Amino acid sequence: MMTEESVNTKKWYVVRAVSGKENKVKEYINSEIIHHGIQDYISQVLIPTEKVYQIRNGKKISKERNYFPGYIMIEAMMVGEIPHILKNIPGVIGFLGDKGQPIPLRPSEVNRILGKVDELSEGATELNIPFVVGESVKVIDGPFNSFTGTIEEINEEKKKLTVMVKIFGRKTPLELNYMQVEKE
Fold this sequence. Notes:
Layout: H1 4-7, E1 11-17, H2 22-36, E2 42-46, E3 49-56, E4 59-66, E5 71-76, H3 82-87, E6 92-95, H4 107-123, E7 136-139, E8 148-155, E9 160-167, E10 170-177, E11 181-183
Antiparallel strand pairs: 1-5, 1-6, 2-5, 3-4, 7-8, 7-11, 8-9, 9-10
């Protein structure tokens, strides 16, 4: 049985959205909150993202990347019409939980996810993509920009890859750092 206290406290829920449309869905949710005047019931809408660095044209650029594609976190009180309003937002598939019913995340899960968000935005760690030998990659920086090659060797400490690229019909090894390539 739900106690009065558990109903009137905000908890974190996960809304499933169409992958790739998370930002649009977040905008819709925020406009619905204002439209229905339910700011008291929904306090935060978050898309868990991480900063990723790459080198483009010799410059280090950062971009945001979703690390839970298709999921949006919402801090809310799921009372009355709130779940119904959220479910009817374009791009929303439903809630993460039992048969699409909103089930709150455990505090430990919330802390882990939000802690990861803080840690990722603070540290903005160097691109740590686990490359695999034999994997095909595209060079995105340097004189061999837009060439495609196969990873021959990976040096984790130096964050460097040896990539075999076909130049004038001959395979040539290139030593590139992680940020100069992207997965194909």
